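Researcher: Last one for today. Full complex below.
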Amino acid sequence: MSAGAPVSVVERAVPTPGPGDALVMIEACGVCGSDVFLQDGGFGNDKLPRVPGHEAAGIVIAVGSDSDATWLGTQVALYYIDAPTDSRWVAAGHGNVGPGIERMGVDVDGAFAEYIVRPVRTLIAVDPPMDPVDVAVSTDALATPFHALTTVAQLREGETLAVIGLGGIGSNAVQIGKYLGATVIAIGRSEGKLAQAVDLGADVTVTSSSGATSIVEAAGGQIDVVLQAVGDNASMDRLAIDIAGYRARVVFVAASQDSFALRATELIWRELSLLGSRGFTGDDIRAVLDLVRAGTLRTDHLTRSQRPLTEAAEALADLRAGRTMRTVLTMKSTQGQEEAKNAMEK
Ligand SMILES: [Zn+2]
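Model: Here's the assembly. Have a good evening.
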């Protein structure tokens, strides 16, 4: 299979967990821009063919030898990264980086599947259980901006945050920025996404074409943190620098290979910090799940579009065409359970 080839559904035997592993029955898995990036060969053509899927929730139904049997029956969020057990980065709480990390749905097969075997150390217990679609979107759509704004940007209460791009990452950066106590400026293109940003708590919305000067004016003159969440768009990378205020932190979170020009004096005179944010850690997922459970963070805008696993190709096409921001795939095995539950309730 080559880059750009469509996804297809195939029958495979249910895998067997080895030592230290668990067999997880997938309940739901999010479809996001990274899956389109994978399909287009963005992670490298050597990664293809691959089962996509890195934002998943499921239930542990078997464990391998050496695995703790108390996991059986537990609902879990799947952390997509597995790092070497001796990683100094894991030990320091930064398991999202470091050499030798293996990404589910990129380096190994992912969770667009009914069953998956994963190392127990990558599983996050969800207890008591939650709606699996909420768990699935917490493992990326919410955890990525949470990581960027907390660990990386260290956004503080009372600061002004500007979010460029209001898709899966940016729209949630708006609600997380409000939760962290910031004044939030939402910068986007489409009326629909700007309106959604208001709904998610944005204090001010500005269209990205209005230019740096009017954006800074709208923000009251000083922007402390800029989150650049538009992929493959050097003019937005440049805009992020242009609107950053004194001592601002500019965080790049969307994948882009484009380069843009920058003078050292721009960094020096304003004491800017340029930062990159890569995904999230298991601890970010735990924090976000607590906030979703408490009703502090919303998921309704992320879980509106749901499709069965067999419609993964359509879900990717929807995303590509901009018809959806995200789709959550739900699995046949769990739909069967739901039907059985509904029948029992009737
Ligand atoms: Zn994702």
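The radius of gyration is 20 Å. The longest strand covers residues 21-31.
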